[in-house]
Amino acid sequence: MALSVGFWVLAAVTVAGALVVVAARNVFRGALSLVLSLVAVAGIYITLSADFLAGVQVLVYVGAITILLIIGIMLTHEVQQAGTPNRFRVPAFLVSVVFLGVMAFVFLQTPWHTAPAGTAALTPTAGSLADKLFEPGGFLLTVEVAGVLLLAAVIGAIALARDK
Amino acid sequence: MVGLGHYLVLSAVLFSIGLYGALAKRNAIAIMLCIEIMLNGVNIALTAFSRYGTPTALTGQVFALFIMVVAAAEAAVGIAIVMTIYRNRGSIDATKIDLMKW
């Protein structure tokens, strides 16, 4: 019961925050609203008993990515009317609504193979996730590739943004 | 009782909001904000499948972690590109960045 109430409150905050991001004229306010939305998504991870993911969400998304985007907003002086839509506003709206309808229909009509209703989830997940990531037969190669990807991205960002 | 369908519909709603913003915004950074919303919608779907489909395997959560890694890389490179465009052209209006349009 408490889980349901938590889900509905967090889902409402998430969607409201996302709508403000899309609707706000002032892109800085949009970024702050995105922070709110992302924190609510971290709460949704907790209702899914994904505690480690919730921590990573706050650290990486709220702590790093949004701050990076806010720095970008502050370095480009187009804050005030930056949120104005382009001329594809109506087609984009139609595409989004049709996409939402199709996806909701598919999600709700597909008979998903779910585990039996009372199955308890793993908590805490940090140790099990570490096993999954670093044990042989897990995702060890993918972890290495992700590290190389981050290194390449950081070097590329430095090379792009540096003064010639 | 909240179940898998609720989380999936929430993720679809978030993805659609982000999709509209990414298609309809002028400012390049606003487009990146909307892309982050879309990635979060996908992450919610993955985590919900992980919770309700295979509650003890955690594979969906691992996928969500890797999406976060890719999102961080994307944000870093994206901001660098936006900064370079702003320095060279004095504007980050995505409708005016059309050098490579046919």
Structural class based on helices, strands and sheet pairing of chain A: mainly alpha
- Strand fraction of chain A: under 5%
Largest sheet entry of chain A: none
Task: Give the SSE order of chain A as H and E letters.
Answer: HHHHHH
CATH topology of the largest domain in chain A: Four Helix Bundle (Hemerythrin (Met), subunit A)
**Range of strand content of chain B:** under 5%
**What's the helix count of chain A?**
6
| Share of helical residues of chain B | over 70%
Which secondary-structure class do the elements of chain B indicate?
Answer: mainly alpha
Describe it for me?
- The complex is a heterodimer of chains A (164) and B (102).
- With 164 residues, chain A is mostly helical.
- Chain A has 2 domains: 80 residues, Four Helix Bundle (Hemerythrin (Met), subunit A) (Up-down Bundle); 42 residues.
- Helices cover 73% and strands 0% of the residues of chain A.
- Chain A is globular, with a radius of gyration of 20 Å.
- The model of chain A has no long low-confidence stretch (mean pLDDT 89).
- In chain B, helix 1 runs antiparallel to helix 2.
- By secondary structure, chain B is an all-alpha fold.
- The model of chain B has no long low-confidence stretch (mean pLDDT 90).
- Helix content of chain B is 75%, strand content 0%.
- Classes of the chains: A mainly alpha (164), B mainly alpha (102).
- At the A-B interface, helix 1, helix 2, helix 3, helix 4 and helix 5 of A face helix 1, helix 2 and helix 3 of B.
